[in-house]
Amino acid sequence: ILFPVSNLCGKCRPRDTDLLQPSLNFLYWSLHQTTPCSQQRAVAVLLSNVSLLELLQKVLECTWLRSPPSEPAYLSSEDALLCSGWLLVASLLLYQHRYNTEVHQTLSLDLTEVLNAVIFRKKKPILLLVSIMQFLRAVLRQNFSSSLLVIVGQNTAQGATQPQPPSLQDAALRPLAMWQVFSLVVSLQNLLVHKDLLLSQAVVACLETLVEYLYVKNQDVALHVASQPWHRFLLFTLLNGGQKSFLQPEVLRLMALFLRYQSSNIISQKEISQILQEAAEANLAELPEATSRALHLFLCQV
């Protein structure tokens, strides 16, 4: 059924939301809820469908072409389609790289537009932001070098935002620029303050992947980003003062991130001891799965 559904999608237009949205969801789950052998075949089927990839290109571009909704919490049918499109493309990037599948049609996206979709959110629904960050994580993990995706350079309209010519740091981080990195980090920090569980998980994961990417490109930049004093204020904001407040998944993962990159000005021995004390007093069997995984990551880093 994957073959006719993908063909059907290729014959649609981006405004055919009632048909496209469940169809793209079906393609997405066909990739994830299957055996590795079937998964490889499913990736090959989807990547060989040029019409489908051309449609996905148009769907993603609608993210910055359409006007923002008046009610940011409301997920319209158009926004739901965008979510499905971004999640499907992120999955295709991941699995194309894993199986080294042949690509018959590349996708072309302007990196500035993708970053601005997160940095300048313009009342985007949470689920759409999460979906775009999932895509951003995929391209960061592949160092922007996927054979499925072509990253377009800075557009001319954005050129005025960067007052200085590219520095040596910009050259090392290419295609990212330093101002984009810091703008993205600040935006991710602001999103964490919302304390939405789904959003927090996506933001912390994106921040982890971003710092990993920076560390490979330029260790000094990565350590500088990880040691920004604002991170400590962010941690205090996330801690609600309640009992075992340190045992929140996003807090534990942030702590592990700062430990990994030796940000001693962000997390001190006192905080480490307090987390260990709270973990010792907790009933580990009753902790949510996300908290258990985050605690394990933190303890391994310690």
Radius of gyration: 20 Å
Structural class: mainly alpha
Q: Biggest sheet, open or closed, and with what strands and sense?
A: 2 strands, parallel
Q: How many E strands?
A: 2
Side by side, the strands of the main sheet go: 1-2
Shape: globular
Please, what is the average pLDDT?
A: 89
Low-confidence stretches: 155-161
The helix fraction, in percent, is: 55-70%
Order of helices and strands: HHHHHEHHEHHHHHHHH
Distance between the termini: 48 Å
Sheet-strand content, in percent, reads: under 5%
Tell me the number of helical segments per DSSP (H or I, 4 or more residues long).
15
Protein name: MEI1 protein
Organism: Anhinga rufa (African darter)
